[in-house]
């Protein structure tokens, strides 16, 4: 703990895992005395580097770039790249640590990693984004590769940024490989990858609801965020018969009591993916909706909540409000959106609660499928990828139930996901010796 004392998000993520995994280790002799968890919290490698670029006004800009190569016990490092001004070592180590368990849960051979930069894409021109991506990749290219470390997108990094980074990698290395996932369809991307995290989150919630004989049909759903994950969570929840009434960004949330249907979602996609604008623009076109500035959507009454924006965006008080309003299911699309206090509220209320490392694993799982297609030099159909995604989410759900269900039949998905994720990585680390 001392070593990482100034890394609060990392400590938070480790504590959550340790609280459930240490009791499991204490009951299972084979995992004892090998410093397994102690080794898992220490990244195999951390790379930090200068990223310099020239803005449109001709000024030199300096940012800091990172890649955390956390754990390669079960496969090449794999995890997204985040461009956001809040990026620092603590945030990326928490994400890389979570990623190791998440990737293990997918059943695919992927280790854990994460990277990014404290670059703020907001308000930057397309040329500035390209120059930044090229400069970032000029250094990162020395440390990654299709069999070494395969980054993907995350906050602030979507198809456009992955494309620019892939182009630069190819130029520097003179090789066309599956070194990044989330690529465009014309150059090795997988169908359903853009949809995968949001869809997977909803599939996971569907599996949880089914344990109670319930479904999305007729349910009111509150979603936070309006980026990649939120957009496709809204789409799938709506397709399954739910009514999604909110979307948000860092400026506030919109509430639309009529529900965000396909047409309205297309407008959100235009605001966010084409114009790089604000969610408040929604009310200009749909005046029945209301924009609530500076707040998060958890005060809106719902049956199901899907936090899909960012870490620590749902606190203990907000969790209490959700439960008091009758919410029966929370499935995290973002990474660690619920604070420890919020998780405690959900578990004490014994509602269905899925931690991101289980319920948002569909994104990286489909990235794994993109890697397979690249290696085979084949493309699977949407239906095929979607079916594999559904199967993977059902398998992750089953693993959580196996390791997280108590004598009274209540499933603690936090415990289930942590222990199931731990077991596979631990087995591989034990077999590979003290490295
Ligand atoms: P995007 O950049 O596409 O969208 C992020 C959304 O979250 C935006 O609406 C953004 O609003 C909002 N947001 C970001 N930071 C903050 C903040 N500090 N406070 C409030 N709102 C904020 O990212 P993604 O949709 O890809 O990622 C969302 C979450 O899902 C992250 O936690 C990510 O790690 C996780 N995730 C993503 C995966 C993927 O495949 N993309 C896979 C697994 C997890 P604004 O526009 O105002 O910044």
Automatic annotation (TrEMBL):
Signal peptide: none annotated. This is Glutamate dehydrogenase. SMART domains: ELFV_dehydrog. It comes from the Bacteria. One of its GO terms (molecular function) is glutamate dehydrogenase (NADP+) activity. SUPFAM superfamilies: Aminoacid dehydrogenase-like, N-terminal domain, NAD(P)-binding Rossmann-fold domains. Keywords: NAD, Oxidoreductase. Residues 190-433 form the Glutamate/phenylalanine/leucine/valine/L-tryptophan dehydrogenase C-terminal domain. Homohexamer. It comes from Flavobacterium buctense. Belongs to the Glu/Leu/Phe/Val dehydrogenases family. The keyword Oxidoreductase applies.
């Amino acid at each position: 703990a001392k070593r990482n004392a100034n890394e609060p998000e990392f400590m938070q993520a480790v504590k959550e895992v340790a609280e459930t995994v240490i009791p499991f280790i204490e009951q299972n002799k084979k995992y004892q005395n090998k410093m397994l968890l102690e080794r898992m919290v220490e990244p195999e490698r951390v790379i930090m580097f200068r990223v310099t670029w020239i803005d449109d006004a001709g000024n030199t800009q300096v940012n800091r770039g990172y890649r955390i190569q956390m754990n390669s016990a079960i496969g090449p490092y794999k995890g997204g790249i985040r461009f956001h001004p809040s990026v620092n070592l603590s945030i990326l180590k928490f994400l890389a640590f979570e990623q190791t368990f998440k990737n293990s849960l997918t059943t695919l051979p992927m280790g854990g990693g994460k990277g990014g930069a404290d670059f703020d894409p907001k308000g930057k021109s397309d040329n500035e984004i390209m120059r930044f991506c090229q400069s970032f990749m000029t250094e990162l290219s020395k440390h990654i590769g299709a069999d070494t470390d395969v980054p993907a997108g995350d906050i602030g990094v979507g198809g456009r940024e992955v494309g620019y980074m892939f182009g630069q990698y190819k130029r520097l290395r003179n090789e066309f490989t599956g070194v990044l996932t989330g690529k465009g369809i014309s150059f090795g991307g997988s169908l359903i990858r853009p949809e995968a995290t949001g869809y997977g989150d909803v599939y996971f919630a569907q599996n949880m609801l089914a344990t109670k004989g319930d479904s999305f049909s007729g349910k009111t759903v509150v979603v936070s965020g309006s980026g990649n994950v939120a957009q496709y969570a809204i789409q799938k929840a709506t397709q399954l018969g739910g009514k999604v009434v909110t979307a948000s960004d860092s400026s506030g949330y919109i509430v639309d009591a009529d529900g965000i249907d396909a047409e309205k979602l297309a407008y959100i996609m235009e605001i966010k993916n084409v114009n790089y604008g604000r969610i408040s623009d929604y009310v200009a076109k749909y005046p029945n909706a209301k924009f609530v500035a500076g707040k998060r959507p958890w005060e809106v009454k719902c049956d199901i909540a899907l936090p899909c924006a960012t870490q620590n965006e749902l606190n203990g008080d907000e969790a209490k409000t959700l439960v008091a309003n009758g919410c029966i299911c929370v499935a995290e699309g973002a990474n660690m959106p619920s604070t420890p206090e919020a998780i405690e509220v959900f578990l004490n209320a014994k509602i269905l609660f899925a931690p991101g490392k289980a319920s948002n694993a569909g994104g990286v799982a489909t990235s794994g499928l993109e890697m397979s297609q690249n290696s085979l030099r084949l493309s699977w159909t949407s239906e095929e990828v979607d079916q594999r995604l559904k199967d993977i989410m059902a398998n992750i759900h089953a693993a959580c139930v196996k390791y997280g269900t108590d004598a009274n039949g209540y499933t603690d998905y936090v415990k289930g996901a942590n222990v199931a994720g731990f077991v596979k990585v631990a087995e591989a680390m034990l077999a590979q010796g003290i490295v």
